[in-house]
Amino acid sequence: MELAPAAARRRQSGSLILAAIAAVFTIGHVATMLGEDEEWLWELSIDMDPDDGCLWVYGIGEDGVTAFTQFGIEVLQQIISDQRAAGRAPPPAKSTG
């Protein structure tokens, strides 16, 4: 009897298959990328969880830092857009263009 590859063995009929996370971006990096205040992004991310692409990353001698997957950045951008539309956002930290 030939064994199926590991990925095929894990796959079940009708199951959702998600791409593996290849990279995460620290909140400081995301703030710079988006031209937003890091503290404000942290406040917006408090209610995000791993399903939203928001993770907590630990390093040696560090307390940990908020980080986002690519999907998490997209979710965060939607939250930013919603906050701006509702008039509950500070001005951007710097020009993104």
Residue-averaged pLDDT: 85
Shape: globular
The CATH topology of the domain at 23-85 turns out to be: Multidrug-efflux Transporter Regulator, Chain: A, Domain 2
Assembly level: single chain
Low-confidence stretches: none
Count of extended strands: 3
Quick one: CATH class of the domain at 23-85? Mainly Alpha
Main pleated sheet: 3 strands, antiparallel
CATH architecture of the domain at 23-85, by name, is: Orthogonal Bundle
Individual helix count: 4
Query: Whole-Å distance between the termini?
Result: 59 Å
Radius of gyration: 18 Å
Order of helices and strands: HEHHEEH
Write the layout of secondary structure elements.
Layout (H helix, E strand, L loop, with lengths): L5 H5 L14 E2 H8 L3 H8 L8 E4 L7 E4 L1 H16 L12
Antiparallel strand pairs: 1-3, 2-3
Give an overview of the whole structure:
This protein is α+β, with helices and mostly antiparallel strands. The protein has a domain at 23-85: Orthogonal Bundle (Multidrug-efflux Transporter Regulator, Chain: A, Domain 2). 38% of the residues lie in helices and 10% in strands. The protein has four helices and three strands; from the N terminus they run αβααββα. The protein has a three-stranded antiparallel β-sheet with strand order 1-3-2. Strand 2 (54-57) and strand 3 (65-68) form a beta hairpin. The longest helix is centred in the C-terminal third of the chain and has 16 residues, at 70-85. The protein is globular and about 40 Å long. The model has no long low-confidence stretch (mean pLDDT 85).
